[in-house]
Fold:
Amino acid sequence: AAPRVVVVGGGFGGVAAARALARGGITVTLIEPATAYATCPSSNAVIAGLRPLSSITFGYDGVRRAGVTVIHDTVTAIDPAARRVRLADGGSLAYDRLVVSTGIGLRFDAIPGYDEAAAATIPHAWKAGAQTALLARQIEAMDDGGLVALTVPALPYRCPPGPYERASLIAHLLKTRKPRSKVIVLDAKDSFSKQPLFQAAWTALYPDHLEWVPLAQGGAVEAVDAAARTLRTGAGVFRPAVINVIPPQTAPALCLAAGLTNASRWCPVDPVTFESTLQPGIHVIGDAAIAGAMPKSAFAAYSQAQVCARGVTDLLEGRTPPDPRLINVCYSLAAPDYGFSIAGVYQPEWDRLVTVPGSDGLSPDDAPPEVRAREAKLGRSWYDGMTRQLFG
Ligand code: FAD
Structure:
C-alpha cells in the first residue's frame, strides 16, 4: 500500500510540509482544528490598527486544491508504538510517518496570577486570532494619557524580535492618535534581537512614547493581578490601562504527552530529517522543535518543512536524505514605513543546526529613510508571497 503521512497542525510548518509532501506524490492528511488560520506575522500591524484581522486570516481551500486531505479536528494523543493519532471526535488515524508542527504551548503556570482565565481579559496575543482582536480593541478603547504595558519572557520563545516590533507599532499608534499615552516594555532580558536597530528607531521616532525596562532594572514580571489589573516587577507595581503579557513558552502539551520533549520542554530532532531523537517515525518542525541556531519563526518553520518533507520522502522510499541548508529571514517594522531584517543560512553540524559561517546578515545601523522604507516594503512582499504559496 502507498505510505501514509499525517501532518498535525495547519500553520506555517504544517501547511508547508503537507504541500511539499503532496507535490512529491505522497498521500498526506493534514489535521488542524481551525477552519481559518490567522497568521502571527503581520498580527502586530492588526494590533496597531494598521490592517484588519481578516487580511491575515486564511482558509484551507487552496491547501485542498494542492492535493492535501484536510481534516478539521484536534489530535488528542499520539501512540508512537502503534503509529496512530487519536482525534477529538473519537476516531483515529494510522500513519507510516508523522509530521508534528503544532507551534507553542503557553506556560500558564509560570507567572503567578497569569493563567488561562486571566488571558480572557489580559491578552497574550501570542497566538493570532481572537487574542489579537482583543488586544487591538483594548488599545483602541484606551483614553489618551493611558499606559500600555507589555511583558516579555526570557528566551527561547516564538519570534525573538516580535515583542519589540509590537511595542514599536503600538508606540506609532499612540504617537499619531493618543499622543499623551506611552508603551512600557517590561523585559526578562537585558538584550534582545536586532536591539541596536530597534533602539535607534525608538530614539528617532518615539522618545516620548516608548520605554524599555531591562531585567537589570527590574523588568521581569513577578506577578499579575487580573482582578485589580496590576503587574508587579522588581521595578515596582504598575497599573496600566492596557496589559499585554507574553508568557514563557513550551512545546504544546501534545508533544509533552507523546514523549517528544526533553528536560527543556522542547523537542530534540535530527537536523537532517527533523525526525525526533526520542520517538522514531515522528518528525517535529517549527516552533516546537529544537533547531539549534535557527530562531522560532514562520520562515524557519517553512524552511524546516521543505527539508523535513524531503527527508520523509527519502526515508519512505529507501534513500539517504542529503545534508540540507536552511534559510531564515525575519523582517521587523519599527513603523509602517520603517523596516529592517536579520538573515541566516543554517546547516547540520553533528547533532544540531549551526549558522553557516559568514551567512548571517543584519540591516545596516545607519541606513537612510529610503532603505528603511524599502525594507518595510520587502517585508510586506515576503508576507504576501509566503501566504500565497501556503494558502493560495
Ligand atoms: P503555528 O503556525 O502556530 O501552527 C500550529 C498549528 O497547529 C495551529 O494552527 C494550531 O491550531 C495547530 N495545532 C496545535 N495543536 C494541535 C493539535 N493537538 N491537533 C491539531 N492541530 C493542532 N515569523 C516570521 O517568520 N516572520 C514574522 O514577521 C513573524 N512575526 C511574528 C509576530 C508575532 C506577534 C508572533 C507571535 C510570531 C511571529 N512570527 C513571525 C513567528 C511565527 O508565527 C511562528 O514561528 C510560526 O507560526 C511557527 O509555525 P508552526 O507551524 O510551528 O506553528
